[in-house]
């Protein structure tokens, strides 16, 4: 079936097999022309290193929230760049603060595929952060995130209103 999909000349196939199976992804990638993009498989820097060593993919979707934050996301970007594997940033329903970090990450040179980042208003009635990220739509062009003059910051009152439990350590 995957070899038949090669005829469609797709940009990539994202995570076609089990999330924890780098070996079968490597076998599949060796037998098809269409690039595989790993997403859920990449949960850490080490998993990215293993996927690259096994040749499990030719793209990686980096989600900062899944890989342990921005430091690890940048490290994965660097490892992929050195291996010639382009990346793209995937969103995980972040607030404006998280989406702004993802947007900044997507500006690094090896993030070559359009990012999967959306304004938080798409998911939340009221964001926990201000200012919100907004989508800019210009006729004849793909939508883009509006450039921010100020980075979004959590609004303490909104956080307090929605806090279910708190601990001071």
Low-confidence stretches: none
Regarding quaternary structure, what we see is single chain
Tell me, rounded to a whole number, the average pLDDT: 90
The CATH architecture would be: Alpha-Beta Barrel
Strand order of the largest sheet: 1-2-3-4
Write a brief structural summary:
This protein has 169 residues and is α/β, with parallel strands linked by helices. It has helices at residues 2-6, 22-31, 45-54, 64-67, 70-83, 96-105, 156-162, and strands spanning 13-14, 36-38, 59-62, 87-89, 129-130, 135-136, 144-145, 153-154. The chain has one domain (2-162): Enolase-like C-terminal domain (TIM Barrel, Alpha-Beta Barrel), CATH 3.20.20.
Chart the SSEs and their pairings:
Elements: H1 2-6, E1 13-14, H2 22-31, E2 36-38, H3 45-54, E3 59-62, H4 64-67, H5 70-83, E4 87-89, H6 96-105, E5 129-130, E6 135-136, E7 144-145, E8 153-154, H7 156-162
Parallel strand pairs: 1-2, 2-3, 3-4
Antiparallel strand pairs: 5-8, 6-7
């Amino acid at each position: 079936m995957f070899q038949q999909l090669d005829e469609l000349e797709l940009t990539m196939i994202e995570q076609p097999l089990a999330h924890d199976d780098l070996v079968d992804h490597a076998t599949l990638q060796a037998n098809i022309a269409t690039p595989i993009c790993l997403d859920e498989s990449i949960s850490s820097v080490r998993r990215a290193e293993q996927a690259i060593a096994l040749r499990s993919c030719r793209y990686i979707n980096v989600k900062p929230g899944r890989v342990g934050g921005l430091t690890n996301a940048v490290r994965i970007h660097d490892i992929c760049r050195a291996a010639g594997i382009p990346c793209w940033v995937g969103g995980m329903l972040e607030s404006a603060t998280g989406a702004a970090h993802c947007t900044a990450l997507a500006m690094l040179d090896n993030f070559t595929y359009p990012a999967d980042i959306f304004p938080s208003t798409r998911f939340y009635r009221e964001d926990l952060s201000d200012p919100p990220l907004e989508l800019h739509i210009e006729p004849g062009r793909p939508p883009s995130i509006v450039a921010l003059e100020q980075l979004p910051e959590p609004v303490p009152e909104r956080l307090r209103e929605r806090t279910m439990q708190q601990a001071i350590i």
